[in-house]
């Protein structure tokens, strides 16, 4: 140690240093012990200071008590002197002194009671005011909370209604888009769905019964407008066929030599015209009528994409 006679203080115990030796105490344990010792010394010093302060306070109060005793003694002496003078001048009865003391005591008691009552009244008023203010604050907070909850609920209902309407609109749009995609996919898979069906040939018509009505195909446009009116087919050897009816067209009977148009023929074995088609290449009038038929506008053209 540098100073053997140094006073043991907490700072000295903390800052003290020892030489390190191979065979000695553990430095960590020594440091920990010194820290505990320093804390204990600090605590003892604090207690000593408190005891010194208490002793000084006691001495001060003793001195004050002595002074007060001296003052009281002086007062007693003065009172005794006054009593002696009063006795010399006029006799005072003990009843008067007792009554005077009782009066002073009663006055002091009334004063104390009044002070206590005022204190209690003020305390009760302050307590009531605080309770009223707290109740008002709590009521306002509850009203604001209820109003906020109502606003939030109304907003939630509005948002729910908007979400439902939006969901319904999206479902409707999805259905519409799905239907449109289905139609487009159907057309892509089967482009012939946009085409008008080929009219039947004479051979196909001759296979039917004499006066049977040919049912239209789903791909064949239907119209009640007369497109061909009294068309006459002229061949070198016109065959005689049974009357044929096509929906949308008036009955067309093949002409027979010596018989007017529209007359029935008895021969049911008819031969087709050139190439086995309904109209020959030379029948300009019939071709023109067919072109008018296919160029005509019908009510159900949209169904076939025309």
TrEMBL record:
<dbReference type="GO" id="GO:0005737">
    <property type="term" value="C:cytoplasm"/>
</dbReference>
<keyword id="KW-0131">Cell cycle</keyword>
<keyword id="KW-0963">Cytoplasm</keyword>
<protein>
    <submittedName>
        <fullName>Unannotated protein</fullName>
    </submittedName>
</protein>
<feature type="coiled-coil region">
    <location>
        <begin position="34"/>
        <end position="82"/>
    </location>
</feature>
<keyword id="KW-0175">Coiled coil</keyword>
<keyword id="KW-0132">Cell division</keyword>
<dbReference type="GO" id="GO:0051301">
    <property type="term" value="P:cell division"/>
</dbReference>
<dbReference type="InterPro" id="IPR019933">
    <property type="entry name" value="DivIVA_domain"/>
</dbReference>
<dbReference type="InterPro" id="IPR007793">
    <property type="entry name" value="DivIVA_fam"/>
</dbReference>
<comment type="similarity">
    <text>Belongs to the DivIVA family.</text>
</comment>
<feature type="region of interest" description="Disordered">
    <location>
        <begin position="253"/>
        <end position="284"/>
    </location>
</feature>
